[in-house]
Amino acid sequence: MSSTSKEHGRHPGREQSIADGKAARLRAPRASQRNFQPSASRDPVGLLLKQAASRIPELVPVRHGRMLLSPFTFYRGAALPMAADLATTPASGLRVQLCGDAHLSNFGGFGSPERRLVFDVNDFDETLPGPFEWDVKRLVASLVVAGRRNGFTSRRARLVALAAAETYRVAMLEFAGMAAMDVWYARLDVEDAIARFKAQLKKGVLRQSESALAEAHARDSTQAVAKLTRVVGGQREIISNPPLIVPVEELARELDVDTSYTTLRSLASQYGRTLPADRRHLLDRFTLTRVARKVVGVGSVGTQAWILLMEAKDGTGWLLLQAKEAQRSVLADYAGESEYDDQGERVVSGQRLMQAASDIFLGWQAVTAPDGSRTDYYIRQLRDWKYSAPIEQMDPPTMTRYGRLCGWTLARAHARSGDRIAIAAYLGHSDKFDQAVAEFGATYAQQTERDRAALAEAVASGRAQAQPDV
User: Fold this and answer.
1) Do the Cβ atoms of 315 and 271 come closer than 8 Å?
2) Against a cut of 0.85, is the pTM above it?
3) Mean pLDDT calculated for residue range 418-428
4) Which residues pair with 97 in a beta bridge?
5) Contact, 291 vs 265, CB < 8 A?
């Protein structure tokens, strides 16, 4: 151990953090993190239907239809029922900025401001401070659900989950020994990682990695404009693909088109105040020309989401932004209300805190409708080297590697926002925590399959409506 490390070890703040971590073991023994016992009054379908009340009515059946495709798609849309379940499990009391929906599809690659491809958490709709283990359990259980969906044996799926949990713990121990500034600057640079381990990677894995890297670099704003828009009569417009993408002009039965454009132009210009001055200067070089409603993801289906087509004022190019409604976090009833009145600001602040690098156009803005109702939005680029791994194609070794990436990334995000030393002291050097949350994941995967069946029964009985996925 270096002299610097010894000095850190004697620091009163560090000693207190270690004591806090050890005390957390008394509140919630590591082995107890396996515990989950559904209550007799548990009603996941009821929670989903309650949540649907805040969604666009005609899109709610689309959401349910997507959730019914598989246990994994159900899991992706069931962050609220799981939040309610997590609130009944042992709590360490060690709080971090939670992603709130840390399943493995909410990790991926995207372009940093320095134009490097980085791997990070990439969905923050539910972000809120809360017990660190909630995110870990959400991630670990998602691996078991996805593994079972891909045909893994129960034992193999559990081993995949165990690897992710172990990686989270080991990474947190490493972060606990690092200087605060080093933790803040830590990130997973995909290109550097491929170059570093190139000699160790099997040829097939290397080819897949390099192909994914090339694909991610191609998924930029230029490619998005080419794919999602066309020129008609000398004017560029967004291609209609209902119900997934619907230009605002085609929503005239539901919305006043002129009012919608006025509102969204105001949104596009006013949100710039939440950007740093240099980014605001860049945004001012563009003007809004076309708007379309977009259906996104699984859990977000039914919330307001808009594609904003922006043209450079000097005619040199185009920019596609996404304005996405930010509703109250599903964690709020169980972890406490956000300190932010604007839910868009909640999302953006959580994202900036957890991510090693964030979209240069990430900001927020609230919109007040003529009837006085308010909608909070966060805004970002629609596509900037964004890459999501094909989860449904993963075999056990591939999902194990991917789960380890997610585990390391989640630990780094938590280390930025929480007491990394206390969390490391709680986790310790044994595999007690790893084994416990892997067991929780196996139990919760079975619960997820039962919950999906309950939604199917609700659709069959008419309690809920579902539309085949489109």
Assistant:
1) no
2) yes
3) 98
4) 129
5) no
